Amino acid sequence: MFERGFLATGSSLALMEPALDRYLGKVKAIWVASVVDEELERGFAIWAKRVFSIEPLFVKSCASIGVVRNAYISPESLGVDRWLGILAAYHLEKRACIVLSLGTAATVDVVDKSGAHLGGFIAPGLSLMIGSLTAGTRRLSVVPAEMVQLDDGLGVSTFSAICGGCTSMLIGLVNNAITQLRKCIGNDDFGLVFAGGDAIQLIPYFPSARLMNDLVLDGLVYAMQGLEPLEE
Known catalytic residue: 21? Predict the structure, then answer.
């Protein structure tokens, strides 16, 4: 079993060190899922070796882990956060599933009941949609993303129309994935797994979906340990 720790965002590694004091001498391994550039990864590795005397292991996307198979022609080019989300969602559902991550970008991945990743979509997330809309359209005032509440109703003001438009696009993204999966498996026996900072706002439109805030971290454990439920 793993202790659920804490998450620090927007902080430098040095500022995290006091909070990590209680883990000194206890850490046996450091596993990393990274989508940043190599220079930042090297900086993290240097920091980890200085603080913990451990060489961190960076997980990469690959062709398969257990029964879960990557659909990409170049498996390593699939974002590692998506790959780990796929692993975790399939382990959780143990059947066909659709994985939505809604943050800066909106990503959707589709997996059949055998564990085969069928592919997915990448689209702008809520903040990117709003930012591009207001930046590229002169008469639309800037709307802070944190003010937007997802609502698929018809807008009766500029603000509510933006909310309705963005919501409808995200709902359509998920519904298209559902349509594609139904074509492949011929039934409705599949799960919906949502993750990411904005995903909670989409749950009311897909009430059967599970919200898993630690989906990528769970997938990291499965990838690095090869847990039994993912094995044939």
Answer: no
